[in-house]
Amino acid sequence: MEEPITVLIVEDHQVTLDGLSMGLSREPDIKVVGTAADSNSGLNIAKELRPDIILLDLHVPGDTGPKSMVQSFLSIPGCRVIIFSGESRMAFIQVVMDLGASGYLLKSESVAKVAETIRQVMSGKRSIISKDLVVDKTKLTKSEEEVLKSLARGMKYQDIADTRKTSPATVRKQCELLLLKLGLTSREELIAWAVKKGFGSLESEK
């Protein structure tokens, strides 16, 4: 029998912590090896136990802010970090995912979804986010639609930047945010999605 996936939960809301701990402990292939209500204790436990997965709330008490805290947990060898938070602002989520978090789940997710994500991350999948954070075409901004049209027509970042009178870095950031919003993982997938949705057609101008 394979060794269970070891999990550390860092969460300061006791009801949420208890629910996650009890729910995940019922999964035969997952073992909760520790819990912490603040980032300082969580880091100490993580360094000692080196769990496979750290399930981390972004807003727990501690000596550092969310960004520095995530970086600290990510620096522990062998540990993968899945964010479990009520924070749903995409710009904020983008920063956290750029740091190297393997997943981002909203607290509205079920324990079953958390367990599924843990298994996916352990199998090598990254950039997993809650479906509630994925939007459809009707919720895209006008600027995002313009970028998608350009991508669907084969334009490079520099070409799009020149057309929109901005920098390639800004265009790249817009594309990275679109990947998160649409639940995609690469520029190629984004282009394919834009083409499939008709952004490269003449009708998209109407």
Secondary-structure-based class equals alpha/beta
Strand order in the sheet with the most strands: 2-1-3-4-5-6
Compute the gyration radius: what is it?
19 Å
CATH topology value of the largest domain: Rossmann fold
- How many β-strands, per DSSP? 6
List the main descriptive attributes of the protein structure presented here:
Arc Repressor Mutant, subunit A; 6-stranded parallel beta sheet; elongated; 2 domains; alpha/beta; single chain; Rossmann fold; 9 helices; about 210 residues
How are the SSEs placed, and which strands pair?
Elements: E1 5-10, H1 14-25, E2 30-36, H2 39-49, E3 53-56, H3 66-74, E4 80-85, H4 90-99, E5 103-106, H5 111-122, E6 128-129, H6 142-152, H7 157-164, H8 168-182, H9 187-196
Parallel strand pairs: 1-2, 1-3, 3-4, 4-5, 5-6
Helix pairs in contact: 1-5, 4-8, 6-9, 7-8
